[in-house]
Write a structure and sequence with these properties.
The complex is a heterodimer of chains A (257) and B (449). Chain A is an alpha/beta fold and 257 residues long. Helices cover 33% and strands 11% of the residues of chain A. Chain B is globular. The chains are: A alpha/beta (257), B alpha+beta (449).
Chain lengths: 257, 449
């Protein structure tokens, strides 16, 4: 990168704002980060119009309206390195549960006058519309992963995000297995690392807010759940939640209709 | 981004003040004010945030999943969604969470009030009073602001530390469940947390003095303030719903007194008070810190009341810009309340109150940082959600925000475009609107109303 400060933009699509809030939750790092990069667009924090090009674009949320379809293409044109933040931007988010339904079903449930409301029939990831350079997983993302990736880019190295199963982290931490020892359904064996082993360390099974790990064996895990006594509908709900459109989870859920 | 609606006509002196994308709010909205001969023709607070249909996909999920799912409505106030969900569903299954588990929930909410309010006070609202585009610009401009913001970040961090300990993480906590928690903290963990809170206590006091020292436009409006009111406590999870105009109802009676309706220019439904005659703006009411404080400031300890008196502001206060002071008083209260709960904490003998699903319905209201948050659920006998209704604070404040804009609009007629837009935006930011929240739901049985 040139000697000028790299320009960073934070962009929001259909989402809860939680992933971009992670940037503001970097309480110990935020002001230093703002010294090293020019935070040139961040509507939630800065009153400034969108203009110019960006070295790094952080994109939160799924693409869910016709305007957003245009907007993501515009952001891509303006940006050298486009990183998506979280489950929504990578796989459509929890709102992508609508993708399994008829287009007019949800609007009629939620709005008395659905004709006033604009949305596309499916909630889709940024990568369905433009090339994406890196996806950070999680609902929400991990602050540590975000800071590490930004540091790697600023240092000029290729950013890397591990994608082994959460299960391994649990073993490394010597936590008693909630699935095997306590018989609680846990998606840790098929979920990618990143959360810091939250749920098992709070005595509950993982519900996969970070999405599939590399080569997830969902079929085997679903059989486990069956042996624990979970009904088909329960198994489906486990796979069809925060990452219902992700390869592996989508099909496994559909097998348990 | 937002398209311009064509002008209806012609000859008169017309002017449109447009804010294409509101900054320093959560979520995406725009603002249009149409003036003709200096008179306001129309105000539109348009929400173009994409709808996400939470109330639709909650149907068919099990009630155990609900607090995890509704948290995702808002990354800034997930605890509020979890609290309203849990209480409504506990009502439905017929259990009550009391003792240390109840205290822990209150502590969790203190954490959210601290982080959410501090974010708004310093990062979203302060730049309006001090004339900057952002808090980061303030920090880069003057060393004393940089110091102020470093302290503010530590205060916010302390709030997040509360949520992280009790909830597992600050955004979308994983440890909250219907009936209580998956795991409860030890006394030792809470005492350590207390040290972090004690370290920011003095700065929370300073924040009240600092907020009160800002320059406020000298305006007062005759609002109807609506908030919960508890017999002895400052309200968070319990109480009756009251207003300064005589409303005093059980929270379950909310639908009898309030109604949702849709406007054609927005993806969010709005909520208004039914039949409230004799006021300036029919149907409009205000929820949030200013409403809560005005209705409940006799419920805080003497130390916090003293801080309120020392601001020199006469309470109750009807100046919307002074919401920042009410917010700062609630941060101070939340820090002290958190310390009080920590000091009295006894480890409960169980982390969750057991329950059996049953067919029925349950509704509840809690005080989110931005005001009252109503949830109502219906389930079948196995605990599957059949119907969900969620009414967030921002859709309740939306009509009031438009009314506030109508009031200032004549004064904007002769201002340059950029200045007029800024003044209008400031009116909106007084409410700390969370547009992400306001959009995603709003269910409505409008027929029959």
């Amino acid at each position: 990168m040139t000697s000028r400060k790299p320009r960073l933009g934070v962009f929001k699509f259909a989402s809860c704002d939680g992933c971009q809030l992670t940037v503001l939750d970097c309480e110990d790092e935020l002001l230093d980060l703002a010294e090293r990069v020019d935070i040139a667009y961040f509507l939630e924090a800065i009153r400034r119009p969108l203009e110019g090009e960006f070295d790094i674009a952080l994109v939160e949320g799924s693409i869910y309206t016709p305007e957003q379809e245009e907007h993501i293409r515009d952001i891509r044109r303006r940006s050298r390195f486009l990183i998506t933040l979280g489950a929504c931007a990578a796989h459509g988010g929890i709102q992508a549960l609508r993708n399994f339904t008829q287009p007019d079903e949800y609007p009629r449930v939620v709005y008395a006058l659905p004709q006033y409301v604009e949305s596309l029939a499916n909630s889709r990831p940024a990568s369905a519309y433009v090339p994406v350079d890196l996806e950070l997983q999680g609902c929400p993302i991990s602050k540590q992963q975000l800071l590490r990736v930004l540091a790697q880019i600023l240092l000029g190295s290729k950013p890397h995000v591990p994608n082994h199963a959460l299960c391994l982290d649990c073993k490394r931490r010597n936590l008693v297995c909630v699935l095997v020892a306590q018989g609680k359904p846990c998606l840790g064996p098929v979920t990618t690392t990143g959360c810091g082993v939250l749920c098992p360390s709070y005595d509950r099974g993982c519900y996969s807010c970070f999405g599939p790990a590399y080569q997830p064996n969902t079929e085997s895990l679903a059989r486990w759940f069956g042996r624990l006594g979970l009904a088909s509908a329960e198994i489906q709900r486990m796979f069809h939640a925060y990452y219902s459109q992700a390869p592996g989870f989508k099909e496994e859920g559909q097998r348990h209709a | 981004m937002p398209e311009q609606t064509p002008h209806p006509d012609s000859v008169a002196q017309k002017r449109t003040i447009q804010v294409g994308a509101l900054a320093r709010v959560e979520g995406e909205g725009s603002l249009t004010l149409r003036l003709r001969d200096g008179q306001v023709e129309e105000v539109q607070l348009r929400i173009f945030e994409a709808p996400r249909y939470f109330e639709a996909f909650l149907r068919g999920r099990h009630l155990e999943e609900v607090p995890d799912i509704t948290a995702r409505i808002c990354g800034i106030c997930p605890v509020a969604y979890q609290m309203s969900s849990c209480h409504a569903l506990e009502r439905l299954v017929g259990i009550e969470v009391s003792g240390p588990l109840r205290d822990l929930r209150r502590l969790l909410y203190c954490g959210e009030w601290i982080e959410s309010h501090t974010l708004h006070i310093y990062f979203l609202h302060a730049p309006d009073f001090l004339g900057y585009e952002s808090a980061l610009a303030m920090a880069q401009d003057r060393p004393e602001y940089a110091k102020l913001l470093r302290n503010a970040l530590q205060l916010k961090k302390a709030g997040n530390a509360v949520i992280s300990l009790l909830g597992g993480r600050a955004i979308h906590p994983i440890n909250v469940r219907v009936g209580g928690f998956y795991q409860v903290p030890s006394r030792k963990e809470l005492i350590q947390l207390g040290e972090q809170l004690k370290a920011v206590h003095e700065f929370a006091r300073q924040t009240v003095r600092w907020a009160a020292s800002l320059d406020f436009p000298p305006v007062e409006h005759d609002y109807e303030f609506v908030a919960l009111r508890h017999q002895t406590e400052y309200p968070m999870n319990e109480g009756r719903l009251v207003s300064n105009r005589g409303l005093d109802i059980a929270m379950s009676a909310f639908p009898d007194h309030f109604e949702e309706y849709q406007v054609p220019y927005s993806n969010a439904s709005q909520c208004r008070r039914k039949a409230s005659g004799g006021q300036e703006s029919p149907g409009a009411y205000q929820v949030g810190p200013l409403a809560r404080w005005n209705l409940n400031w006799d419920r805080v300890p003497a130390s916090v009341r003293q801080a309120a008196v020392e601001t020199g502001i006469t309470w109750p206060c009807r100046n919307p810009y002074m919401s920042i002071v009410a917010r700062s008083l609630e941060v101070l209260y939340a820090v002290e309340e958190a310390l009080r709960i920590i000091a009295g904490y006894e480890l409960p003998d169980r982390s969750v109150v057991p329950y059996q699903p049953r067919a029925g319905h349950g509704a509840w209201i809690t005080e989110a940082p931005r005001g009252i948050l109503y949830h109502r659920y219906e389930t079948d006998a196995s605990g599957i959600i059949r119907q969900a209704t969620i009414i967030p604070p921002t859709s309740q404040n939306q009509l009031q925000m438009e009314q506030d804009l109508l009031r200032i609009a004549p004064g904007l007629a002769n201002l340059p475009e950029a200045e007029a837009a800024l003044q209008a935006e400031k009116v909106i930011r007084n409410y700390d609107p969370c547009i992400s929240c306001a959009t995603h739901f709003l269910k409505l049985r409008v027929e029959g109303r």
